[in-house]
């Protein structure tokens, strides 16, 4: 069985370099969110809590499209139509464009680009490809019509990835009281923590011999069909291979070019300034 497995991977790699490939994959994303902070906010009415839960569900369940050829890929969120007069002004929409946007990858140039919008200013976040040291386990299963193989790796957490933060567990009654006060005052950074790394589990198929996958993930000898990273699951629901008129993948060029680390630092600074302004308004009544 193992010989067949590795022969399949070798064949996929050979085919990938021997012919042009293009396609489009649709992914459903779902993130399990920590809602414990709402339990301590006694000022929330049932209607407010319901509305917040609906907005959080909308933020945590999304649909994305990955357009790819052998060397390039573009990963985009499928946006819902906005109600006239309200488009793009919600907290979820603002956070979405500020923290993540269309993602472009070029395997040959080893470059990754992402379009983001911060307070109406457009940025082009650039960095080298996000690489993961994958361990291909050999475990196999069927995903839709494709045979899939399991791979495991670890990934460094992004400091702006809200889904990777979890509320720390207080060790005693005193810490619990301090955490409760911090939550009421909006000092979430004193209560929530982020691990340096998370485990990533991917299922890829050598039947589609491209080294692409959803979001920043890739680097396996086959398209990633399912991926679990922390509290987030990405599942491919549809694949269209070699369409008659493949969509052109255009390298993004608009926006101020900035390294990801510098963008994260700037974003954090802006968020702190915003919080101070809101606190000042609160003190003035």
Record the SSE blueprint.
Layout: H1 2-18, E1 22-31, H2 36-39, H3 46-60, E2 61-69, E3 72-77, H4 91-99, E4 103-106, E5 111-118, E6 121-128, E7 135-143, E8 146-156, E9 165-167, H5 173-184, E10 192-194, E11 197-205, E12 223-229, E13 232-241, E14 256-259, H6 260-283
Parallel strand pairs: 6-14
Antiparallel strand pairs: 1-2, 1-13, 2-3, 3-4, 4-5, 5-6, 7-8, 8-11, 9-10, 11-12, 12-13
Pfam families: Porph_ging (PF09697)
Keywords: Signal
Protein name: GLPGLI family protein
Plain-language structure description:
- Keywords: Signal.
- This is GLPGLI family protein.
- Residues 1-18 form the signal peptide.
- It comes from Nonlabens tegetincola.
- By secondary structure, the chain is of the alpha+beta class.
- The chain has one domain.
- It is built from six helices and 14 strands.
- The chain has helices spanning 2-18, 36-39, 46-60, 91-99, 173-184, 260-283; strands at 22-31, 61-69, 72-77, 103-106, 111-118, 121-128, 135-143, 146-156, 165-167, 192-194, 197-205, 223-229, 232-241, 256-259.
- A twelve-stranded mixed β-sheet has the order 7-8-11-12-13-1-2-3-4-5-6-14. It has a two-stranded antiparallel sheet with strand order 9-10.
- A hairpin with a 2-residue loop joins β5 and β6.
- The radius of gyration is 21 Å and the shape is globular.
- Residues 1-7, 13-18 and 83-92 have low confidence and may be disordered.
What would you report as the Rg, rounded to the nearest angstrom?
21 Å
- Structurally, how many domains make up the residues? 1
Structural class: alpha+beta
Q: What is the helical fraction, as a range of percent?
A: 25-40%
* Terminal residue distance: 70 Å
What is the number of helical segments per DSSP (H or I, 4+ residues)?
Answer: 6
What percentage of the residues does DSSP assign to strands (E)? 35-45%
| Side-by-side strand order of the widest sheet | 7-8-11-12-13-1-2-3-4-5-6-14
Global morphology: globular
Q: pLDDT below 50 for ≥5 consecutive residues: which ranges?
A: 1-7, 13-18, 83-92
Helix and strand pattern: HEHHEEHEEEEEEHEEEEEH
> Major β-sheet, in short?
12 strands, mixed
**Mean of pLDDT:** 78
Number of strands: 14
Organism: Nonlabens tegetincola
Keywords: Signal
InterPro entries: GLPGLI (IPR005901)
Protein name: GLPGLI family protein
């Amino acid at each position: 069985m193992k010989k067949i497995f590795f022969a399949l991977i070798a064949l996929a790699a050979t085919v990938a370099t021997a012919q042009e490939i293009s396609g489009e994959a649709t992914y459903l994303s779902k993130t399990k969110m920590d809602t414990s902070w709402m339990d301590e906010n006694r000022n929330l009415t049932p209607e407010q809590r319901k509305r917040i839960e609906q907005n959080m569900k909308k933020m945590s369940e999304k649909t994305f499209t990955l357009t790819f050829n052998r060397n390039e890929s573009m990963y985009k969120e499928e946006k819902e139509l906005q109600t006239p007069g309200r488009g793009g002004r919600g907290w979820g929409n603002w956070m979405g464009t500020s923290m993540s946007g269309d993602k472009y990858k070029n395997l040959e140039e080893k470059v990754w680009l992402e379009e983001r919008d911060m307070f109406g200013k457009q940025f082009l976040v650039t960095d080298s490809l996000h690489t993961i040291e994958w361990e291909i386990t050999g475990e196999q299963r069927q995903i839709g019509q494709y045979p899939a193989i399991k791979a495991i790796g670890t990934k460094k957490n992004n400091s702006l990835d809200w889904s990777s933060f979890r509320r720390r567990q207080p060790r005693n009654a005193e810490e619990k009281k301090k955490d409760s006060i911090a939550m009421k005052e909006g000092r979430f950074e004193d209560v929530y923590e982020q691990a340096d790394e998370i485990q990533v589990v991917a299922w890829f198929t050598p039947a589609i011999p491209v080294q692409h996958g959803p979001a920043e993930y890739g680097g396996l000898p086959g398209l990633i069909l399912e991926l679990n990273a922390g509290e987030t699951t990405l599942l491919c629901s549809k694949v269209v291979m070699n369409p008659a008129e493949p969509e052109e993948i255009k390298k993004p060029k608009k926006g101020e070019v900035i390294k990801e680390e510098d963008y994260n630092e700037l974003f954090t600074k802006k968020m702190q300034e915003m919080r101070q302004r809101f606190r000042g308004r609160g003190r003035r009544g």
